[in-house]
Design brief:
heterodimer; A: 240 residues; mainly alpha; 8 helices; 1% strand; elongated; B: 136 residues; 5 helices; Mediator_Med19_met (chain A); Mediator of RNA polymerase II transcription subunit 19 (chain A); transcription regulation (chain A)
Amino acid sequence: MAGDERWNYGNMDMYLPQNPPSSGAISQNYTQQTESLPHRTDGEPPVTQNGQTTHEDSAFYLLKDLPGIPRPGGPHHVSPGAQGPVDITGSVNLIQHHGLEHSFHKFCGKKVKEPLSNFLPNLPGFIDTPGLQDGSSLRSLIEKPPIVGKELYLLSGPQLQGFRLHPGPIPEQYRLLHQQPPAKKKHKNKKHKREHNGGASSATSGEKEKKTKKQKKHEDSEKKEKKKKKDKKKKKTGST
Amino acid sequence: MAEKLEQLEQHLEQFIENTRQMGIIVSDFQPQGQPVLNQKIHAMITGMQEIDRCKGQLQDVQVPLEVFEYIDQGRNPQLYTKDCMEKSLAKNEQVKGKIDALKKFRSQLILELDKVFPEEIAKYKAAREMVKEEHS
């Protein structure tokens, strides 16, 4: 058998006495050797006095949770891998398991637009630019949190005097802050325009088609008349 | 939870709109606009007070930090959700492939071991059945 090659039968020589006695003496020595083996409780394979393992009890030494094999930490100790079968593993569709199919189709089925302004269409100003450019990033808010915890009070009359402004426009460098991005034209209008233009073009093309058909008919009729005239002339010339 | 978030969203939109209107008034200020400006400043402070009151109701809301990177880049935060879904699906498929491969290996290994060590495998199978009964 192929498995026999794995076993080191050279180890069995230690059970054989140097002077060959009768067969009974050999079996007695063998049993004495096995009974004197220390019984290990740490899950390691049983070791002989010579430091070599036997295969008599070591078949399942790796399986600590099987009956008949003492557990290393005592009878109530549960090894990490011996908690029994786990129901939820990666072999299950976890999105389906957690009821996220609708969310998955919503985000992954349809095309999600890239710019931030598509998520927040009602916000004024330019919001698609990176926050690092103008110092309005959320990361900077986390790294340097503002002063919080103070009470907010309405301003009194004298305090509002500080907000009295001079009439006139603000400097040009601050006017850009109030510029709005160009309003996105509604696609419906474009569609309507395209349909209208398409309808008009289709109408003109139809008219053109009609004209060409009419022209063709007229041309055909002219050709027929010419042929008839030619035939008549031939007949006249032929008769004379 | 959704109602509280909607309420906060409304307060924030009103606050932003108020700020925008203040910006328009200030961009070309006229003296007759001073009372309106004062009114807008009051509205701004009351808006901040309302937003501050909302924070107590939303203490347990957790936001992943990675979303902030998307927002700071001017990208739609729904793309983060989409990327998470796609990554989890890919990982799920990867793990399922590994589990299937290991199951096949296990069955093949037991099959071959049964040919070489029939007695030991019979003992092993009996012991596994006992363990299954214990756990069930």
